[in-house]
Specification:
Blueprint (H helix, E strand, L loop, with lengths): L10 E3 H8 L3 H11 L5 E2 L5 E4 H15 L4 H4 L4 H19 L10 H8 L3 H15 L1 H22 L4 H20 L11 E5 L8 H12 L3 E4 L6 H10 L4 E6 L5 H14 L5 E6 L3 H4 L5 E4 L3 H14 L11
Parallel strand pairs: 4-5, 4-6, 6-7, 7-8
Antiparallel strand pairs: 1-3, 2-3
Amino acid sequence: MNSRDDHSRVALSIAAVERDTGIGKDTLRVWERRYGFPQPDRDAHGERTYPLDQVEKLRTIKRLMDQGHRPGRIVAQSMEALQHLSRGEAALQSNRALPHAHNNPDLMPYIALLQSQDHDGMRRELLKVLSHEGLQHFVTEVGAPLTRMVGDAWARGDLAVYEEHLYTECVTSLMRQAILAIPRADSGGAPTVLLTTLPQEAHGLGLLMVESLLSLQGCRCVSLGTQTPVRDIAQAAKAHRVDVVALSFSLNMNPNHVVDGLAELNLLLPASIDVWVGGGAPVLRRRALEHVVVLNDFDAIAHAIQQWRVQNIKPESKSNTSA
């Protein structure tokens, strides 16, 4: 057998495991002492090495931690138990975020293309929808529900990390091209919007979808991408003289980070700049957030823009029309 195909002897260093799983070296050592897992071997120099089956289990643990599970409750469990828990958690989150989205038969072919490594085929099919139906339909009827399905499949372990990244890159590039093609009209009747996420939020696809819909409504958008420090958000908002700061929070965002980050941002922003937030984070709907407009769905974007117009654009004085 070719030695490159024999993975049973492959082991990763602790630094490689940290890069692969996102779990820090110190955490791995603490778990080893506290929970008896992982159980690394030692190389000729006495350094820890981790067999691939343990690395795979660590990946599953990290997925569950991202979904809110505590290490003390899951690290010592068997791989079978973790996989069962992961599948059940993914189904529960899918039901909360978008009922029946994971059973949408119209979108399953895209998942199949992704799983069969047909990245070009998936791009062609998505581009076909975008070209024929337009950006609004693409975002609301395909992009948003399909992104949730891909996230659920990753959480269950049905998609690899690289497959999720390929999907994200494909949809991102298509939407950016579509945004650039939107005719630039006078934005005097719509707000200028700064879009970003807090430092703890790395997911940017939802933010790009919001940018697409805002651009279709005539807004001028200034996107900082993801993970911007709060003080930098405030500085950028003032420098670009924006009317609104829009933030996206994914389902697994720590609620304390959401509440504390928004509170700090409100202290740093002038009262003239509104804050709009959206995404799957449950805390957005559980708690009333002062000076924050929560966009519960994509339809709320148009309503928020209309409300902004009512509050900020004065009608022409009737005296100008008098004889």
